[in-house]
Amino acid sequence: MEREVYRYTLDKQVSMRDAEETLLLALLGTESIHGAAQTRLDVAHSVDEAGRAFVIDGATAVGQDLNRLFTGFLMREFGQDSFRVQRFTELQGVT
Questions:
Q1: Where are the alpha helices (DSSP H) in 1-95?
Q2: Residues 6+ apart with CB under 8 A from 6
Q3: Helix, strand or coil for residue 7?
Q4: pLDDT score for 44
Q5: Which pLDDT value is given to residue 92?
Q6: Burial, 47: exposed, middle or buried (Cβ in 10 Å; 0-12, 13-18, 19+)?
Q7: Is the pTM here over 0.85, yes or no?
Q8: What does the DSSP assignment read for 17-37?
Q9: CA 36, CA 47: separation in Å to the nearest integer?
Q10: Mutual angle of helices 16-34 and 61-78, in 10-degree steps
Q11: Does residue 52 come out as left (phi exceeding 0), alpha (psi in the -120 to 50 range) or beta?
């Protein structure tokens, strides 16, 4: 089974700290939709400080909702051209 993951790469003008806070806001929104326990069970994400990137698993409905919220919040807060998002399968080896 292929597993979808999304990699968000930020432009240099976007503060990593601000983007991490945006991810936390998206996680809170996801918890509001699915509950804290289900979010904890079904969401995986990581931060790549050096690469100025975030990776979020999209294999579950909960993960898909987190990706939708994070994308929307990034666009509203920093602008549509402030980041790039790429979708990969786990088989393509994104880490």
A1: 16-34, 36-42, 61-78
A2: 55, 56, 58, 67, 85, 86, 87, 88
A3: strand
A4: 95
A5: 52
A6: middle
A7: yes
A8: HHHHHHHHHHHHHHHHHH-HH
A9: 20
A10: 140
A11: left
pLDDT per position as a tens digit, 4-56: 999 999 999 999 999 999 999 999 999 999 999 999 999 999 999 999 999 99
**Tokens standing for residue 13:** 């003008």
Residue holding tokens 């919220």?
A: 69
For residue 68, what are its two tokens? 């939708």
Q: Quick one: tokens of 31?
A: 């918890």
Amino acid identity of residue 40, one-letter, is: R
- The length of the chain in residues reads 95
